[in-house]
From TrEMBL:
Identification of the protein by name: Viral histone-like protein
Assembly and binders: Homodimer.
GO CC list: cytosol; virion component
UniProt keyword annotation of rRNA-binding present: no
Gene source species: termite gut metagenome
Length: 368
């Protein structure tokens, strides 16, 4: 079966309105499916003496063993498939004393494909074999390439949710606007146009404040921390240290974020009168921060999100992209909101807010 692809027109440099228009190819939205272990196990059962349950149990055990090997820093080689290995990124520091394991800020799993699994384009492959992929070029009405219309999908903030929204837009090859305070989370994407902005200054009457609003709010809260006792919890990376130093924020008042850190222990150690944080939801740890503060009778100040008005749903043509977006939202939100109603919105090309889907319960089956 051939992979369905189609042509489309876009700017060579998405952020440059004077850039020439060029043709690209991408898979037709809605023509690919996600196959789970259960699906694969059922297919294997038809071709072998193993049952579906046997395959699922063996696969689960294999994944567990691969994880154990990677945690030791070793590699896993599966003949005919590839090699799994552990990699990590660490922040560069100026002194040997600073160069500790705490500078490791990201741990990754690298996969290198085995030669036996490498795929090739059937139309250009010199030797035809089982690894050749057949592509079928689909044309739009009139036999013309699809011209990419101007879209304005705004993604605001370098938060967990913001980065996930950007990942969806990149996967769907949709142009978008990404707004963050600074350039640190700009990333590399041919589909996004990056803008920077800032928060307005907030007032607080507490004498001892722990700010969990991010390093980019140090400048906005400067009139406060210059005259009060204040700590900022910021990411442990060079860019964050540079921003704090530029604003002359005291180094002994900087708390570097550590993955898996216990908020209750931190609050109990610093004993602030109040904390200030952003309305980041479950994925940003708002509930955990609030519960930890409440246990210690510490005031919680929350920078609230604006409320989005609901507008009637217009008819949309690109159903494939919206199906992908709904699916991604469901995957992200399923562990966060086991009960209740979840509304999914998208900004339309005319600036209106499109209500894509309402999920009554994320325990229900995925909607398309």
């Amino acid at each position: 079966m051939a992979v369905q692809i189609h042509r489309y027109l876009r700017r060579k440099v998405a952020a440059d309105p004077t850039s020439p228009m060029v043709y690209h190819l991408k898979q037709v939205p809605g023509t690919s499916q996600t196959h789970t272990i259960k699906n694969l196990a059922e297919a294997i059962e038809k071709k072998s003496s193993l049952t579906t349950e046997d395959v699922i149990h063996a696969t689960s055990a294999l994944v567990r063993e691969i994880k154990e090997v990677l945690l030791r820093g070793d590699r896993v080689k599966i003949d005919g498939f590839g090699i799994f290995s552990l990699t990590f990124n660490a922040t560069e520091v100026e002194t040997e004393k600073e160069c500790t394991i705490k500078t490791i800020n990201k741990v990754n799993i690298r996969f290198r494909t085995d030669n036996a699994l490498r795929l090739a384009n059937e139309s250009t492959s010199g030797t035809h074999g089982s690894n050749d992929v057949k592509f079928d070029l689909a044309l739009h009405a009139g036999g013309k390439a699809k011209v990419r219309k101007k879209t304005e999908i705004p993604v605001c903030g370098g938060t967990t949710e913001g980065r996930k929204a950007v990942a969806v837009c990149n996967e769907a090859a949709k142009p978008y606007y990404y707004s963050t305070k600074g350039d640190g989370q700009k990333g590399n994407s041919a589909h996004g146009i990056h803008h920077t902005g800032g928060l307005e200054e907030k007032e607080n009457n507490s004498d001892r404040l722990l700010a969990l609003t991010g390093v980019n709010t140090i400048s906005q809260l400067k009139p406060y921390w210059e005259n009060h006792s204040c700590w900022f919890r910021i990411p442990n990376r060079d860019e964050s240290r540079s921003i704090a130093a530029k604003e002359q924020f005291p180094s002994d008042k900087r708390i570097y974020y550590q993955q898996g850190e216990d908020d209750t222990f931190l609050l109990g150690t610093l004993k602030p009168e109040a904390i200030i944080t952003k309305e980041s939801g479950e994925s940003g740890g708002l509930n955990e921060k609030s519960k930890a503060a409440n246990r210690l009778h510490i005031t919680v100040l929350v920078v609230k999100r604006p409320v989005l008005p609901a507008i009637s749903v217009p008819k949309e043509e690109e159903i494939g992209f919206y199906s992908l977006l709904v699916k991604k939202c469901h995957e992200v939100c399923k562990p966060l909101f086991p009960e209740g109603e979840l509304n999914i919105f998208l900004i339309g090309e005319d600036g209106s807010i499109i209500k894509l889907q309402t999920l009554q319960s994320c325990h229900s089956s995925e909607s398309s």
